[in-house]
């Protein structure tokens, strides 16, 4: 068994989940951003993960995960009646980001647990490799 492959797979999962955590943090930080350089309110960003494959003698095998893209959530912005706000439209409504803080916190917990699980797998593979090397010396 190739333990180095286990390291690479767990590492790719940790990298992907770290990006997911960064995007969640950015979404929460911009929950009240009503004006962006592109125009309109901030739009929630989410990662798109894809299976990473590697060609071997036996065919295609899983080799971890990769981030395919970071996309804007297409759901509509929250509209709030605030006639005194500088970004209010003619009817007095302000478009706020489509960020739901509760959903972001649920995603945050999920991403944290996935990161921790990958870290645990990496640590276990490290311990197994270390024990195998000790047996080889003895």
Q: What is the gyration radius calculated from CA atoms? A: 22 Å
Distance between the termini: 20 Å
> pLDDT below 50 for ≥5 consecutive residues: which ranges?
none
How many β-strand runs?
Answer: 4
Oligomer: single chain
The backbone outline, from C-alpha atoms, is elongated
Domain count, please report it: 1
- Helix proportion of residues, in percent? 40-55%
The chain-level mean pLDDT equals 92
Question: Structural class, judged by helices and strands?
Answer: alpha+beta
Structure write-up:
The chain has 138 residues and is of the alpha+beta class. It has one domain. The protein is built from two helices and four strands; from the N terminus they run αββββα. Strands 1-2 form a two-stranded antiparallel sheet. A two-stranded antiparallel sheet has the order 3-4. A hairpin with a 2-residue loop joins strand 1 (45-56) and strand 2. Helix 1 (3-29) runs antiparallel to helix 2 (101-137). The longest helix is centred in the last third of the chain and has 37 residues, at 101-137. The protein is elongated. The model has no long low-confidence stretch (mean pLDDT 92).
Q: What can be said about this structure in brief?
A:
With 138 residues, this protein is an alpha+beta fold.
Features:
alpha+beta, two-stranded antiparallel ribbon, 4 strands, 46% helix, elongated
What is the fold's blueprint, element by element?
Layout: H1 3-29, E1 45-56, E2 59-72, E3 78-81, E4 93-96, H2 101-137
């Amino acid at each position: 068994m190739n333990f180095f492959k286990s390291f690479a797979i767990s590492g790719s999962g940790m990298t992907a989940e770290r990006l997911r955590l960064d995007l969640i943090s950015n979404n929460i930080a911009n929950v009240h951003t009503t004006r962006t350089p592109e125009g309109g309110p901030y739009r929630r960003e989410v990662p798109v993960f894809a299976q990473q494959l590697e060609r071997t003698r036996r065919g295609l095998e899983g080799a971890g995960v990769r981030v395919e893209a970071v996309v804007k959530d297409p759901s509509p912005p929250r509209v709030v009646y605030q006639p005194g706000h500088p970004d209010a439209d003619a009817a007095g409504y302000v478009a706020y980001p489509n960020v739901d803080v509760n959903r972001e916190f649920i995603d945050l917990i999920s991403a944290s647990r996935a990161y921790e699980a990958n870290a645990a797998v990496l640590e276990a593979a490290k311990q197994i490799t270390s024990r195998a090397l000790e047996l080889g010396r003895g």
